Amino acid sequence: MTEVLFVVTAATGWTLKDGTVHPTGYWAEELAEPHRLFTEAGWSITVATPGGVAPTLDELSLGVAGGLPKRRKEVRAYLDSIQEQLDHPVPLDEVDEADYDLVFYPGGHGPMEDLAFDPVSGELLRRRVEARRPLALLCHAPVAVLAATNEDGTNAFAGRRMTGLSTVEEKLNPFGWKAKWYLQEALEEAGIEYRKGLLPLRPFVEVDGMLYTGQNPQSATALAERILADFS
After folding, report:
1. What is the DSSP pairing of strand 205-208 with strand 211-214?
2. For 110-130, what is each residue's pLDDT tens digit?
3. Which runs of E-coded beta strand occur in the chain?
4. The pairing of beta strand 3-7 with beta strand 102-105
5. CATH number for the domain including 18?
6. What is the number of alpha carbons within 13 Å of residue 4 lying toward its C-beta?
7. What is the average pLDDT value for the chain, to the nearest integer?
8. Which domain holds residue 59?
9. Residues in CB range of 198: below 8 A, 6 or more apart
């Protein structure tokens, strides 16, 4: 059986440049849709978070920003069906990523607050990319690679092709203009070859070897389906 590790943010807020904290967590579709598709494929999923803290759903992701009402209802129903698993995640420092066929990071603004700076996650990612084993990060989650550094201080993902939420897309959020920094620029400054789709808020997936990234929430299905196709 294919074993998958979902690494999910434990953050409940995103600190903006004016000092205010925007309530956040994980983005509903970005966790629910890949989880559903992988489960339907017969894959086994383990959820882990920093400190083993139960992750918080960003309620904004089930509002108008989460798509049409029917779609939002479906996503919420699926999350409700796996709530027991989400309520009892494994502490990230207790998992060995080598035990998993795929490591998957769903997004939301939460990773901008915790995973971007988490040394445990950073070391996991460094080992994973060094071993060239399947790794996927979606939307804001690619920010986690900023914590993956080599002994010489360089980023372990420098030179790799990746996507993630673009600055243009971030600024479509009214609070996005208050960000201290932006994912796209941070990845580029780390030496990563950032790529994005021609149009904002449209599905876009970048694949560089065993490294899979999706640009935005709209890429959740496409990213999971690409991984499933490559694993088949």
Report:
1. antiparallel
2. 999 999 999 999 999 999 999
3. 3-7, 13-15, 21-23, 44-49, 90-91, 102-105, 135-138, 161-162, 193-194, 205-208, 211-214
4. parallel
5. 3.40.50.880
6. 26
7. 97
8. 3-231
9. none
